[in-house]
Amino acid sequence: MALYESILASPHRTLNGDEADYFYVPVLDSCLITRSDDAPHLQMPEDLRLRSYHTLEYYRKAYDHIAQRYPYWNRTSGRDHIWFFSWDEGACYAPKEIWNSMMLVHWGNTNTKHEKSTTAYWADNWDDIPLDRRGSHPCFDPRKDLVLPAWKEPNPGAIWLKLWARPRINRTTLFYFNGNLGPAYEEGRREDTYSMGIRQKLAAEFGSTPNKQGKLGRQHIANVTVTYVKSEMYYEELASSIFCGVLPGDGWSGRMEDSMLQGCIPVIIQDGIFLPYENVLNYNSFAVRIEEDEIPNLMRVLQGINDTQIDFMLGNVRQIWQRFFYRDTMLLEAERQKKLFAEEEAAWSVEVSKLEDGDDVFATFIQVLHYKLYNDPWRQGLLLEKETGLPSICSKAS
């Protein structure tokens, strides 16, 4: 919804399809999926009772509508259309008819390592969706698609304290990860396949909280935190760390955003999976990638990064953190609330309004579209005459 509302309010939006460079199709898959479990009429037997399959059919209906009602789809075979798949695994269950389009997701699995559905929740698994509906496309194609940051609610205290700018001298924890660690731990997910087993491997080596058997990780050391225990000081603990783990859940987990917003160097452990803007930003300048098989060597790798490189990466995180934050969308909402309510301005609104101007999620999204407009190979040599202004039907008096 944050992206959709920003598009609706954007000066880049046009009501004239003939002058549009892109067409955003507002299918809200997460709204449908989250209601499926408590709305029996949404669980159709013909969809194998899979939320993924049922959602695919909704996208297909949207495709049928725009392909039949508007001339723009057939003009480019849908290449200039944009679809958002915001649920866990992204566009894995996109109907084959729309795969030419640009997919927006929160998690970009190229399927080069993890070829099948990675979720541990059966209703979201897409492996059994018939090929005549889904096709055989990957979940993400970095040549045309884009991973966007997940929405993070503004934390007034974290913004006021400027945790993203905390200097290295105050970051005393070498590595930090807090989250569900699987069946070996209290309150852990029961499925061995949760997180593709990656969180479980990390905890087995470096767990700092005892598991159900009372054991710590094999290589546990004092300045490393790998725990499942929820903390009221979560943001503070991230901001007290140099490196922070970015591991999957049933798909995306929001840990990349948590790291960036608290000024911590992201350590990405998920092979073949693109994170937000990874195909447009130089990730080597502010993040570390560790192969899943190298988890036992994680601390040796991090301890081997010299001070100059660490300072360089922390500095880059501070420079670009707002690209992972929906600042302008929040300011739009703040303005709406001011008009609707005469009450005192919310704390989050006050703090967000104090932030220095910088390119946030939506600004970065528009910049990527502008770049693609002049660099996508399929657009080369494509000459389209575009009319400006409102279509004549809109200007006629009723």
UniProtKB/TrEMBL annotation:
The keyword Glycosyltransferase applies. One of its GO terms (molecular function) is glycosyltransferase activity. InterPro entries: Exostosin, Exostosin_GT47. It is found in: Golgi apparatus membrane. One of its GO terms (cellular component) is Golgi membrane. Transmembrane segments: none annotated. It is a single-pass type II membrane protein. Residues 2-304 form the Exostosin GT47 domain. The keyword Transmembrane helix does not apply. Keywords: Glycosyltransferase, Golgi apparatus, Signal-anchor, Transferase, Transmembrane. Pfam families: Exostosin_GT47. It comes from the Eukaryota. PANTHER family: EXOSTOSIN HEPARAN SULFATE GLYCOSYLTRANSFERASE -RELATED, FAMILY PROTEIN, PUTATIVE, EXPRESSED-RELATED. Belongs to the glycosyltransferase 47 family. This is Exostosin GT47 domain-containing protein.
